[in-house]
């Protein structure tokens, strides 16, 4: 019996090491992108215990809009901050340029978020995920010598309509709309389900059973081919293949489209930069350490590990009480 237990432990450890090796490449993308600075300048609960709604699947997703009531604009960029109470701002680049563009957001906790900005002249959505308080938004154009020049900026004091408003809408990293395939798939998966555990479990199970980890793309990113990567969610869904960013973004979009507040979390799993998700229940609040449902209890939801390890035992052994996870940013 002792020998059997030892063998099982060894197998679980090997599975975890295999997963960590696979993730360490792709997920370091987020770490390196965050280090860029062009500015120069459980309780456990049973299935069905946490009902969210008894209504059918959501048919209309909540979409951001550029209302135009509060705008900062010049010849280079436009910042629409009309809807900060709903947890987002929108930015559009207006000028001709061959330089790289960025949006930097500093939240009330002094956490800096950095995004790339497209040159296409269309609005992009950026979330305000640090709660109530003062935010600084800066549009940066990277010059030829690698330094950043401020193109536009605002400082705004934000009072959210509710704490999870930023986590119910699409944004640049979790980009979808009413006609997206991920939205249709989510509605299909949760059809006939009324409780939060049932809805979350349906989406989670679909992703971990149908997606595979994209080692080739992970290697491409490590070799410099994926700088500034943002998932195209419908393409990821069609491929059923991706890295941790892809897994988490698809699940976040699916759950948000169903009215379930969901954070995409970037941070560290042990010493590997990684992405996972956190879900909100109005009965329990944000469930940060206990949101993977295995049919009996809930634990940290990490769709990448679950899909790659294909072993609940190995997953539980690594995750434990969640202490191996360190949160850096929420999206």
Short description:
The protein is an alpha+beta fold and 331 residues long.
List the helices and strands and how they pair.
Blueprint (H helix, E strand, L loop, with lengths): L1 H25 L1 H8 L35 E3 L3 E4 L7 E6 L7 E6 L5 E5 L7 E4 L5 E10 L5 E11 L22 H10 L5 H15 L1 E2 L1 H8 L10 H7 L1 E2 L1 H14 L4 E8 L2 E10 L3 E3 L4 E2 L4 E2 L3 H7 L2 H8 L5 E6 L1
Could you characterize the architecture of this molecule?
This protein is an alpha+beta fold. The chain folds into two domains: 2-39 and 174-330, Roll (C8orf32 fold), CATH 3.10.620; 71-162, Sandwich (Immunoglobulin-like), CATH 2.60.40. It is 31% helix and 25% strand. It has nine helices and 16 strands. It has helices at 2-26, 28-35, 181-190, 196-210, 215-222, 233-239, 244-257, 303-309, 312-319; strands at 71-73, 77-80, 88-93, 101-106, 112-116, 124-127, 133-142, 148-158, 212-213, 241-242, 262-269, 272-281, 285-287, 292-293, 298-299, 325-330. The chain has a four-stranded antiparallel β-sheet, with no helix packed on it. Helix 1 (2-26) packs across helix 8, helix 3 (181-190) crosses helix 7 and helix 4 (196-210) crosses helix 8 (303-309).
């Amino acid at each position: 019996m002792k020998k059997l237990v030892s063998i099982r432990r060894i197998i679980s450890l090997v599975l975890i090491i295999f997963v960590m090796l696979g993730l360490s490449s792709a997920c370091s993308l987020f770490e390196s992108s965050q280090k860029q600075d062009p500015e120069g300048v459980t309780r456990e609960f049973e299935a069905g215990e946490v009902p969210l709604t008894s209504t059918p699947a959501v048919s209309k997703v909540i979409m951001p809009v550029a209302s135009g009531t509060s705008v900062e604009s010049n010849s280079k960029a436009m910042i629409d901050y009309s809807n900060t109470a709903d947890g987002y701002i929108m930015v559009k680049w207006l000028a001709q340029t061959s330089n790289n563009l960025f949006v930097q957001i500093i939240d009330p906790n002094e956490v800096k978020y950095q995004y790339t900005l497209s040159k296409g002249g269309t609005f992009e959505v950026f979330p305000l995920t640090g709660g109530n308080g003062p935010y600084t938004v800066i549009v940066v154009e990277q010059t030829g010598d690698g330094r950043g020049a401020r193109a536009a900026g605002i400082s705004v004091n934000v009072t959210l309509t509710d704490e999870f408003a930023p986590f119910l809408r699409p944004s640049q990293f979790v980009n979808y709309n009413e006609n997206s395939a991920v939205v249709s798939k989510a509605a299909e998966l949760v059809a006939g389900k009324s409780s939060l555990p049932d809805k979350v479990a349906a989406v989670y199970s679909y992703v971990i059973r149908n997606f595979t980890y994209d080692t080739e793309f992970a290697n491409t990113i490590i070799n410099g081919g994926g700088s500034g990567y943002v998932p195209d969610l419908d393409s990821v869904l069609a491929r059923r293949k991706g890295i941790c960013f892809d897994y988490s973004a698809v699940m976040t979009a699916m759950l948000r489209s169903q009215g379930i507040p969901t954070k995409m979390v970037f941070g560290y799993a042990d010493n590997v930069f990684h992405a996972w998700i956190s879900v909100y229940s109005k009965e329990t609040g944000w469930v940060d350490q206990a949101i993977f449902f295995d049919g009996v209890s809930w634990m940290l939801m990490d769709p990448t590990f679950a899909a790659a390890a294909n072993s609940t035992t190995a997953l539980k052994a690594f995750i434990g009480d969640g202490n191996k996870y360190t949160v850096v940013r929420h999206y």
